[in-house]
Amino acid sequence: MLKKNIYMRKKNGFNIMLFVFIINLIFILSCTKAGKNPSPGVLLQADRDFSAMSVKEGMFRAFLYYIADDGVILLDNSLPSKGKKALAERFAGKSDSSFILSWEPLYEKISESGELGYTYGIHTNLVKATGDISKGTYITVWEKQTDGSWKFVLDSGTQGLPDPIVVSQLLISGKGGKNAKN
Predict the structure, then answer these.
(1) 108: left (phi over 0), alpha (psi -120 to 50) or beta
(2) Which domains are present in the chain?
(3) Rounded to whole angstroms, how far apart are CA atoms 118 and 140?
(4) What is the CA radius of gyration of the chain?
(5) What contacts 127, CB < 8 A, 6 or more positions away?
(6) Crossing angle for the helix pair 59-66 and 84-91, nearest 10 degrees?
(7) Which of 24, 55, 92, 155 is deepest in the core (most CB within 10 A)?
(8) Looking at the DSSP assignment, which residues form a beta bridge with residue 75?
């Protein structure tokens, strides 16, 4: 009987130590970062590829390719367009051959999980017939897809970015920007 009690104590002691070890292992693993954050520049490159497709194949085709199935576009004087299907309906019967929309991303930020991020930058719209150019700013929110690609879930832009030469002249003269004196 004494041998049985000693055996049970040893066995119970082992079970308790194993239990404590497993709990500690779970705790340690749950506290470590996932390490899913993609390498820097991945969204900048995705955004540049998106712009290159817009220039080469047209804005409509590029937007329909890069939008996530549930993506949203916010445009001036318009309700949000939600989803690839709604965007395709918006583009139906219209032509994007009279202009070239391009943009250059200036910044990217990716979440620690590596699943969401955003870019912002300057877009340029060139009217082919007249050569008129207008510029503005934009922001694109990206989501990493199950296949590893990035699609946008939100895109919006503003019009009316002043000519950089005019802005620099205003800043130099002290008539524009944060240090403007009225």
Answers:
(1) beta
(2) 42-167 (3.10.450.50)
(3) 5
(4) 27
(5) 98, 99, 133
(6) 170
(7) 155
(8) none
Per the listing, tokens 């939600």 go with 82
Place of tokens 């445009």: 75
pLDDT tens profile 89-105: 989 999 989 999 999 99
Rounded-to-5 percentages of helix, strand, coil across the chain: 40, 30, 30
Beta strands in 63-163 (DSSP E): 67-74, 81-82, 99-110, 116-127, 133-144, 150-159
pLDDT at 137: 93
Tell me which DSSP letter residue 78 carries. S
CB 134 within 8 A of CB 162: no
Number of Cβ atoms within 10 Å of the Cβ of 28? 9
